[in-house]
Amino acid sequence: MQLEGSPMNTRRSRGAKLRTIAILAGGVLAAALLFPTLGAHAISGDYMVVVSAPESLAPGATSGGNATCPPGFVATGGGVDLTQPENAGLRLINSAPYPLGPNPGAWVANMVNESTTTSGGFVITVVCFGK
Question: What is the C-alpha separation between 62 and 33, in angstroms, rounded?
Fold first, then answer.
């Protein structure tokens, strides 16, 4: 039997909060892909999702970029989304917080286009939480 406020209930409520954040971030990410010129999308006073400008990758090329958190925020997650076309032959080289350490302020990624005929595009996304 668990009492109100016990550690198990606290963990469950944190898990529910994290699921809610992930769902909200996913929705904002989808909106960012539909409207890439919007840039940073504030979700609440505590966290936001920032989407980079779209990167274009010619056949055989390698490129990278970053999405940066505003001052007072740290990067807690991020990734890369393909923008066009999804079958261009793009391969992820790396995707990680930057700088590495206790207070990363950006998300960086590098891609290679393994196609010899089709260009492709991608955006980098970072989830930022206030310090």
Answer: 22
Angstrom distance (rounded) from CA 88 to CA 96: 23
Q: How far is CA 129 from CA 42, 85, 94, 99, 103, in A?
A: 11, 31, 22, 16, 11
- 25-33, long-range: CB within 8 Å, 24+ apart, which pairs? 25/49, 25/77, 25/127, 29/81, 29/125, 32/123, 32/125, 33/81, 33/83, 33/123
| Token pair listed for 114 | 């393994």
Per-residue pLDDT reduced to its tens digit, 56-103: 999 999 999 999 999 889 999 999 999 877 667 999 999 999 987 777
Overall pTM > 0.90 = no
Give CA–CA dist 57/120, Å, rounded. 5
Query: Which tokens sit at 104?
Result: 């990363």
- Close Cβ partners of 97 (under 8 Å, ≥ 6 residues apart): 75, 78, 104, 106, 107, 108
Please provide the size of the chain in residues.
131
